[in-house]
Amino acid sequence: MLPLGQPPACAYPLFMPRLLDTPDELAPLQRELVGALAGVAERIKEALASDMPAVQRLVEHVEQYHGKMIRPTLVILSGLACHPSDVAKGQTAGLAGPAPLSPLTPAHTTIGAVVEMVHLATLIHDDVLDEADERRRALTVNRLTGNEAAVMLGDYLFSSAYRLCGQLGDAHATVRIGQTGMTLCAGELLQLHNRGNFSLDQRTYFELIDRKTASLIAVSCELGARASGADAEVYARMARFGSKLGTAFQIQDDLLDLGGDQSLVGKSLGKDAEKGKLTLPVIHHLQSSTPERRGKTLTMLSEGAPRALLAEALRSTDSIEHSRRVAEGLVQEARAQLEPLRPSHARQMLGAIAEAVLTRAH
Amino acid sequence: MLPLGQPPACAYPLFMPRLLDTPDELAPLQRELVGALAGVAERIKEALASDMPAVQRLVEHVEQYHGKMIRPTLVILSGLACHPSDVAKGQTAGLAGPAPLSPLTPAHTTIGAVVEMVHLATLIHDDVLDEADERRRALTVNRLTGNEAAVMLGDYLFSSAYRLCGQLGDAHATVRIGQTGMTLCAGELLQLHNRGNFSLDQRTYFELIDRKTASLIAVSCELGARASGADAEVYARMARFGSKLGTAFQIQDDLLDLGGDQSLVGKSLGKDAEKGKLTLPVIHHLQSSTPERRGKTLTMLSEGAPRALLAEALRSTDSIEHSRRVAEGLVQEARAQLEPLRPSHARQMLGAIAEAVLTRAH
Questions:
Q1: Domain residues for A321?
Q2: Does any domain span residue B248?
């Protein structure tokens, strides 16, 4: 058990350092968010606990992988921003006067835990697929105990997530989470199928990341809003917000794999090209290069050239800038989904998170 | 779509050939079972269908892995044997006279599909763990398309199973299935943790197979009975029946890995010793050998001696016979669980299935 009032380091949301410099009016919301994420981390710990020491040790190792907690953050903020009766009332918590009731419910905590656990399960299996050695500055499970244990531990997390979701007694949530699991696995399979396919077009790329990355972020926003009693039109809009945000997030991930600082990102980088995964900047570059330039880049890709050399080639066709612009456009579309919501600090923070996707360095 | 009235080859239950030689009175039940299993196979096909050709091709390959369909068979038969009002009425189907109403419901079909899909998912991941090449006379997914696709396809099946289960709108079933998923993964992790542990005792062995194998068979019987409206005492008894049956089933699997005919079993054999998995005959042998004999067997295990040589050593301590006796005892305990049930053909067939575990060659 964590001592009360001391949320673990992992419970700070992704953009906290940046947002701490923003208006003071968001400070109470930030405190509420940190408290809610500590609750999510605790729910995950309880849901994964095993009476078998060999399993419990692995589970505790995986808890180090919590990092940005972006999906639970979106569950909580969507829940706060879409509460139909009084969006503002949760946001004065911590100010003088009687403590108001928060619109957050235990269902928000559970859904936050479920989406994070599904995400952790996919991270563990991704690391097996990518033969990665490092994740959030800790050794990957596959590196630590072998691929077999990593496969089984991922399955354990998936099963725990579904059991926890079942405990909500909300068939809609269970079906949507199962469906999202299918969608993201299908996205991974599509990616594997297209490994080393240097003719991959942008349409297929977007179909792929829509499934692989955006789907879980979209369902986080959708179920967070739904748990606050938002109507179908509102939670469908939040799903669109999450989907656009998730796609922009993946493009930024592509850019970080190419040019990010491994010590900041906290995982092995430069793996995309090495594993034959085509990213948006590479696809754009191959499509807009002269045949000669294209040939040179293909040689580079097949020979596993250092990522700095690849990045240099991509700059010659403005492909990195192009990808940034695509991500910017998606962030604008995401923000537009928030406009019809009643103004609130939660809505403001969702908008700030969308912007921060473009500038994140980890 | 399968043509109506023509269940696929895979829909025949494990013990059909043997049971076909048993009393004529079971023939109508057999016909009902074959029809119900065809419904389960169809439900699985629908639940796994993907609009992405790359995924659909893999799904169709996995459908070849249906073999014994033992878990859906137990769902159906437990449902028939535990129907509280009139167990017999489903068993005259196909005889002259007006067709009676079957106590089977769409929930039995769905639960049968869910447990089979969870089982198929674990088979796919087991094959990755075991580096197996062959499964039900077809190439394993890992052999066919690599470990990465096999990991993701297993995840896709898990997610599909949970989505389908969620569609039942029965939180108890969803939670039990998620919990069983956790239990069986924990069992696999315990097995990996004990790989090559030549001091493994029988207590840990039973703890391990209770989780790894018996848990899913137990929940199949439990949820099948529960879907017929059986009360808690009855479905808890059916869970015990399944648990004992499942444990006996695993011991027989150990014996087949050691002495079975690969062409009959339809999967790579002799993998247990090779992968450092201790089985009941080996554990018994190591515990009851002289130090000299024990040393020789340990050398054999570490050098990966042919399974025929290992089997010969085990016979010297009567360890194969000992394991058979343990399995026989478990089958008797399983059958005893059925005694308080009202007499019915379904109860009779459940008893026959328990007996057949001891004689199965595949």
A1: 9-357
A2: yes
